[in-house]
Amino acid sequence: MLQKISNWDDTIVALATPPGVGAIGVIRVSGKNAFGIANELFASKDLTNQKSHSIHVGMLSDEGLNIDEVVVSLFKGPKSYTGEDVIEIGCHGSPYIQQQIIEACIRRGARIAKPGEFTQRAFLNGKLDLTQAEAVADLIASNTAASQKTALHNIRGGFSIVLKELREQLIGFSALIELELDFSEEDVEFADRAKFDAILQSAQITTQQLLESFQLGNVIKNGVSVAIIGKPNAGKSTLLNTLLNENRAIVSEIAGTTRDTIEELINIKGILFRLIDTAGIRQDSKDVIELVGIEKSLEKMKEADVVLYIFDVNEMNSAELVELEKEFKKSNKKYVLAGNKSDIAADGVVEKYDSVKKIFPISAKNKMGIEQIKDALFDSTVGEIPVSENVVVTNARHYGALQQVNQSLTDIKQGLDSGRASDLVALDIRRCLHYISEITGDISNEDVLDFIFSKFCIGK
Ligand SMILES: Nc1nc2c(ncn2[C@@H]2O[C@H](COP(=O)(O)OP(=O)(O)OP(=O)(O)O)[C@@H](O)[C@H]2O)c(=O)[nH]1
Ligand SMILES: [Mg+2]
Hints:
Structural class: alpha/beta
Strand order of the largest sheet: 3-4-5-2-1-6
Distance between the termini: 22 Å
Strand content: 15-25%
CATH superfamily of the largest domain: tRNA modification GTPase MnmE domain 2
Largest sheet: 6 strands, mixed
Order of helices and strands: EEHEEEHEHHHHHEHEEHEHEHEHHHH
CATH class of the largest domain: Mainly Alpha
Bound molecules: guanosine-5'-triphosphate, magnesium ion
Oligomer: single chain
């Protein structure tokens, strides 16, 4: 494991809670001198004599001046988050008090932590592997039940365990091949090729399942983007407001009301959907601003994971609907068709479309058919992704490395099938192991690590 840290002897300090006024704030100190620094500021008792994992209430003061009454928690390394001695000072939630405490720590030799440095130290001290460390960032960023669940699973090493098994299989495999190489002069075959095949197959299945899970992982982490598209006055903004349950967008009977796109989030069955209300698309506009808006609508439609196409049932005709569907199919776009203003539709109007295409009759204004629209959005996107009960890959870096693992496995398999020399097969196995190690961080360069941890917030 990589063991390089710029200032290993440093003691770092940072506010671990969000900046600003709150009921309490927590300041974290980690490093060789954490206990010494805290002790100098804490007059009530000698903190260096206390048991690990204990908490102490008392006055924190600096150069004779009281700063705040605080709760100090002690964690002696290696049984701490970073693996070093860690002190957490719980103070009152005034930014002024927090600043004074941080400054007092700095005067006694600590320095401000870089973003993610606490977790980086935890990684470098072997407390977490890289996938677990990255899961810490994901957990902090989680905003739905699903993203919380996957991040927690990965912090507990869910993904690492699968990778470890894969690695062990390949190492066993590699050992046999290397052994064969050592005795190549004697033309012996130690490795049982049938067993090899079975191991390879199982490794390939695992890798492919992980790769497939990324589709779900991506949706869990980044949500689904939905472009609400339609002609002017179809009711796009009304539908956005109804889905959000608030008057977010301006609605009017004037065609061309929405000019700029509006984006808002809703949670459907634990997944975030990003709704994008757009300018109504029409061919004959002469208004320069509206034309820019229409251009934007088309762009959003292209980028979106799914298009929610809304039309006025009283103005649509079957031929147009057929044409529309063709367009979506041609561009391979997922879509949901909503026939709006069904509240003022004449009898039989809605039914007439059913022979053409499945549409969802709704009334955005009267909140009718809205649950069906939500279900349709979910089913057409998340619903089509195979649900994995196992580990879900949510990280693009992991996905990239897994693709390389998969490619190496294919190369190994081809090598074995075509009777390629064992030393060449051994090379492919090593390449495969290399990519697995890259995911867990057993092999990484410093730039990659700095990049990963710099995405954390300070204090984590
Ligand atoms: N009767 C009825 N009227 C509706 C319904 N939905 C929207 N409207 C009306 O249709 C008009 C246009 O609604 P908007 O939501 O502004 O339409 P839009 O598609 O956003 O229009 P642009 O922004 O101009 O492209 C408004 O007067 C709404 O009140 C509905 O379900 N039933
Ligand atoms: Mg609008």
